[in-house]
Design goal:
binds magnesium ion, alpha/beta, Rossmann fold
Length: 220
């Protein structure tokens, strides 16, 4: 296989190995496999900033240490870009994720679908391998509905999709309505502020709950 991580998302959706007869599980990284907010907070802390989580946002939760107002957009973006290139060591895995995926992968194809900036691809791939997540990774940008629809078309089995962000879950519901959606937000501080819709997208706090929910929906 050519290095999947060098292909566009659309090319990768065709090139990635998918068992046409088995269920398919498509898994996001940040706040599902990786404790993104926590890691980003550690990273900005080493650069003179602090994370104060009091809303569902990214840059609006970052402050110069002791400052009253949050950082401006360019400062937040620069920290974000640096984090994706240099911050992999600050990123901790979500408890139980690797073990759960390893067990699930005996019964279904597992793919990683992440929205990451281009310059962060190799660091992200390295991070996944370091933490025992040896699954093909597709790097996407924008809403995930279109690529999930393309991936789902490659199997006759049931398809599941896990993400933390409601817009991605809604995008998949619109473009690939047969795909079962699951939502997880690993960061306990962020969770109370997050938009959710558990009647439409199965909610799980952690992998101990997520794994049986996936089995029930995809293997029943
Ligand atoms: Mg995410």
């Amino acid at each position: 296989m050519t290095a999947l991580e060098t292909l566009t998302a659309t090319e990768a959706a065709q090139a990635v190995p998918v068992d046409p007869a088995r269920p398919l599980l498509i898994v996001d990284v940040d706040e599902v496999l990786a404790r993104f907010m926590e890691g980003f907070g550690t990273f900005v802390g080493r650069h003179g900033y602090e994370m104060r989580i009091d809303r569902f946002a990214l840059f609006q939760n970052i402050y110069k240490v002791g400052a009253e107002g949050c950082v401006d957009m360019p400062t937040g973006k620069a920290l974000f870009d640096d984090f994706f290139r240099d911050g992999a060591d600050d990123l901790q895995p979500v408890e139980g994720a690797a073990a759960a995926l390893e067990r699930l992968s005996a019964d279904m194809t597992v793919l990683i679908l992440t929205n990451a900036p281009d310059h962060g691809r190799s660091a992200r791939m390295g991070w996944l391998r370091t933490h025992g997540l040896h699954y093909p990774m597709i790097v996407n940008s924008g809403l995930k509905g279109p690529i999930v629809r393309d991936l789902a078309a490659r199997t006759s089995g049931k398809v599941g999709f896990i993400d933390d962000l409601l817009p991605n879950l809604e995008s998949v519901a619109a473009d690939a309505p047969d795909v079962v959606r699951f939502q997880m937000i690993a960061d306990e501080r962020l969770r109370p502020y997050a938009p959710t819709d558990p009647a439409r997208h199965v909610w799980a706090d952690d992998w101990a709950t997520m794994e049986p929910a996936i089995r029930a929906k995809l293997l029943a």
